Write a sequence for this structure.
């Protein structure tokens, strides 16, 4: 009797331990493989005042051991002849939510990759894969508590990606761009 009761208690305890370990593991993430590659394209950016500027865009998506990297460049050609180039590269890691990824943009004092701090003026970045769309979000919090949210939707399309970019300031869309990026 004692032995049977003891074995049931041990089995129950091991079961609880198994479920606790399973619950602490990252959720199964969507597959980044279909998005992996290098893409290029261009678009005309329409500013709030109605003026336009041509912009070249490229993005590279790479699978990493425990996540993926998205690197992109935008080159804007100003009317006065100036050229403005911006480059970004962000590693994404699986989170505890399925298909949602946290950005690993800096290392803490223990050497672990962590997101930036939006309360310090740094962007808070995360990503998700929903169906055939990889989305990267960037949230910026201003000095007075106002905010800007940028959303990059990269949707699989024949021969490349459809890119849809939107910028919202305090909930109001202030800019958007849509173009096709050809796979290289």
């Amino acid at each position: 009797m004692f032995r049977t009761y003891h074995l049931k208690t041990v089995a129950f305890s091991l079961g609880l331990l198994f479920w606790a370990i399973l619950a602490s593991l990252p959720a199964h993430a969507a597959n980044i493989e279909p998005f992996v590659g290098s893409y290029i394209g261009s678009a005309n950016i329409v500013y709030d005042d109605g003026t336009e500027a041509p912009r070249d865009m490229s993005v590279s998506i790479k699978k990493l051991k425990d996540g993926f990297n998205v690197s992109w460049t935008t080159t804007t050609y100003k009317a006065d002849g100036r050229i403005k180039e911006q480059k970004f590269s962000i590693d994404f890691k699986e989170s505890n939510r399925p298909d949602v990824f946290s950005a690993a943009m800096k290392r803490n004092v223990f050497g672990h990759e962590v997101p930036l701090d939006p309360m310090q003026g740094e962007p808070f970045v995360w990503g998700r894969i929903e169906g055939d769309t990889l989305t990267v979000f960037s949230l910026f919090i201003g000095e007075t508590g106002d905010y800007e949210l940028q959303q990059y939707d990269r949707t699989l399309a024949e021969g490349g990606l459809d890119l849809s970019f939107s910028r919202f300031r305090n909930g109001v869309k202030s800019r958007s761009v849509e173009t096709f990026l050809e796979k290289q």
Q: What stands out?
A: The domain at 28-183 is CATH 2.40.128.20 (Lipocalin).
